[in-house]
Write a structure and sequence with these properties.
With 320 residues, the chain is α/β, with parallel strands linked by helices. Helix content is 30%, strand content 17%. The structure holds S-adenosylmethionine.
């Protein structure tokens, strides 16, 4: 097993199916940029081979399908159906929800049991300002369809001091009413937020967020799964919410994540642009591919930082 001196190993793989996205969220994508797919993206069959190889080489047992926006790529169906056939402990999906209604049949057929929907506001005007595309009603209808199908839904919200602070309580109420766990993701210094003042302007700390929530609810800290990145709180008789407190309570020292980009590169750390191409290993016989990928994983693990520092890499490229 490949383990570093802090005892960190790769268990969770985030697969960015495509770099393309149908949104252009203002904290993810710089002004005027469109979200294109990478020049050469691996087909679904190759990505499935990569997952199998990483499973064998690193003991990966949890997969999150992300992007870009995973539902925009034609390979979504084949990848989802394929990955659900692999012997994994957990498969989950992160989506902006815009295409959930269109994809509900394949989602149902795949047997996937849980899904995370990114939603930063319940206000249709704010929605357009932040996502700069898409339509709120369609996302909400998609969430309802997932709940009706019996999927466990979590919602991810990035609280932004100058954009959606007034949305924290309405979104929490919406989630509590539906037995959905709301996950607040502290803004990260990724891409264009690493420089300039966008991060300082919009960052809202865990403390600031809890102050807002305490205006309406009493809550207490509760357990989080061992390798969870979220700090979780229970509101008695109502439900649970979580905060991915990247800045306020960093979790780098226990990070088990590995990322595979749509163009076949492995990233060992979100806060490090170092990456290694594995697309050329996927058709080699296992006895040749495995030792090579293991060497790559040793290097990728060494890329992990001790604290999150941010990175120029754009989230949509390597998946959030
Ligand atoms: N398109 C999918 C979605 O919207 O969930 C998957 C990719 S998106 C990059 C994954 C998550 O990263 C989203 O919840 C998004 O809000 C979050 N994200 C993007 N940039 C971020 C940043 N700078 N800080 C914190 N979260 C960010």
């Amino acid at each position: 097993m490949i383990v570093d001196r802090l005892g960190r190993r790769f268990r969770n793989l985030r697969v960015s199916l495509t770099a393309a996205c149908n949104y252009a969220c203002n904290y993810c994508v710089p002004d005027g940029k469109r979200l294109m797919k990478a020049k050469y993206e691996l087909p679904a069959t190759e990505m499935l081979k990569a997952v199998t190889l990483l499973q064998q080489a690193a003991g990966i047992d949890k997969i999150r399908i992300t992007g870009g926006e995973p539902l925009v790529t034609p390979k979504f169906d084949d990848f989802l159906l394929g990955v659900m056939q692999l012997p994994l402990k957990d498969v989950s999906l992160t989506t902006n929800g815009q295409l959930l209604l269109k994809k509900q049949d394949v989602i149902k057929a795949s047997g996937i049991s849980r899904i995370n929907v990114s939603l930063d506001t319940l206000n249709p005007v704010k929605f357009k300002q932040i996502a700069r595309s898409g339509d709120l009603e369609t996302v909400l209808a998609g969430i309802d369809a997932m709940l009706d199908m019996g999927l466990r839904v979590k919602i991810n919200m990035v609280p932004l001091r100058n954009q959606n602070m007034a949305e924290v309580l309405p979104l929490l109420d919406y989630c509590l009413e539906r037995d959905i766990e709301l996950r607040f993701i502290e803004l990260m210094r990724m891409g264009h937020l690493l420089t300039g003042n966008g991060f300082q302007t919009d960052f809202l700390s865990m403390e600031g967020l809890l102050d807002i929530i305490s205006e309406k609810y009493e809550f207490a800290r509760t357990d989080a799964p061992h390798d969870s990145t979220a700090v979780r709180f229970r509101i008695p008789d109502k439900g649970v919410f979580g905060i991915i407190a990247n800045e306020s309570e960093p979790f780098c020292r226990a990070c088990t994540r590995l990322r595979l980009s749509s163009d076949g590169n492995l990233y060992g750390c979100l806060s490090n642009s170092n990456h290694r191409y594995i697309g050329d290993l996927l058709d080699l016989p296992p006895h040749v591919a495995l030792p090579r990928i293991q060497n790559i994983l040793v290097d990728a693990l060494a890329d992990k930082k001790l604290a999150f520092q941010g990175e120029v890499t754009v989230m949509k490229l390597i998946g959030g």
